[in-house]
Amino acid sequence: MSVDPNRPSAARIYDYFLGGTHNFAIDREVAERAYALVPDLPQVARDNRAFLRRVVRLAASRGVRQFIDIGSGIPTEGNVHDAARAADPDARVVYVDVDPTAVIHSREILGDDPRTAVLQADLHQADRVLSDASVRALVDFDQPVCLLLVAMLHFIPESPDLHEALRRYRDAAAQGSLLAITHGTAGSRAEQLEDLANLYVRTGTPLVLRDRAAILALFDGWELLDPGLVQLPLWRPDPGDPPVEDPDAYAALAAVGVLT
Ligand SMILES: C[S@@+](CC[C@H](N)C(=O)[O-])C[C@H]1O[C@@H](n2cnc3c(N)ncnc32)[C@H](O)[C@@H]1O
Asked: In the predicted model, what is the mean pLDDT of residues 198-210?
């Protein structure tokens, strides 16, 4: 597992937006340029983390106690296992990320916690993820699972392989399972977001800003829970959450699907 400090990484840039310290000068440079283009990016990152916690609570309220978080990133405050355990102390969480920095720091934080596992894998490697011994030790696929693909599918270009991988995760999941996705979208800011996408080319994981129809297609076979696919902070906000001032300009959509 090797970390290249000279190449910016999406995981470390995101860490910087969240106020984390697991990033290098090259990540900070790209993050600052991204911020200059889209000043609300750190807020969108925080909104993503808040969404994650709302989804985990929802899953727990439906009796779902096992979570597979793919593209889990560098652990920052309010991780999935913290939120899940607050709801159910026996919750099990598998973190999967392709980025070695994310995997190293996740392992550091989780240590030998027997109810969590960290796997370095690409989302496309569905068979590997689903059959991995550490995953099988924690996840009972006869029981519903919550699959979290939060702020990560916009790093994955459209391809038959992507849809095949999503189908495999869906086919492995029991009835009652949940799929939560948040995804960058251009909304009414196409030009600004295109400049941002160009900037991320340097990371090796270019941004793919899908439109509504393309994001909905990622939920093939899942039934969307209310309120459907909406701007991220509008997905079942907590009481007291601030309103979204200009929803059309908000750069990320979110939805949760259930297997019926
Ligand atoms: C913006 S971070 C999101 C982190 C976390 N899900 C959250 O919302 O706080 C995106 C993460 O997706 C990971 N990623 C990108 N492409 C991936 C792939 N093909 N397979 C697995 N992880 C991937 C990146 O390494 C990065 O850690």
From this structure: 88
What span, in angstroms and rounded, lies between the C-alpha atoms of 167 and 102? 25
Query: Is-contact 3 74, C-beta < 8 A?
Result: no
**Can you tell me whether residue 36 is helix, strand or coil?**
helix
With beta carbons less than 8 A apart as the criterion, state whether 79 and 150 touch.
no
Element (H, E) at 129: helix 126-131
Q: H/E element holding 4?
A: none
Q: What is the per-residue pLDDT for 89?
A: 92
Measure 135 CA to ligand 1 centroid, in angstroms.
18
Residues 2-12 pLDDT 10s: 788 889 999 99
Report whether the peptide linkage leading into residue 157 is cis, meaning its omega lies within 30 degrees of zero: no
Q: How far is CA 245 from its chain centroid?
A: 24
**Per-position DSSP letters for 196-233, written without gaps between them:** HHHHHGGGTS------HHHHHHTTTT-EEPTT-SEEGG
Residue type, 185: T
Ligand 1 centre and the CA of 81: distance in Å? 17
Taking the C-alpha atoms of residue 223 and residue 158, their distance in angstroms, rounded to an integer, is 21
- Residue with CA at minimum distance from ligand 1 atom 16: 155
According to CATH, what is the number of the domain 10-258? 3.40.50.150
State which of 98, 118, 183 you would mutate to test the pocket of ligand 1, scoring each by most atoms of that ligand within 8 A of its C-beta. 98
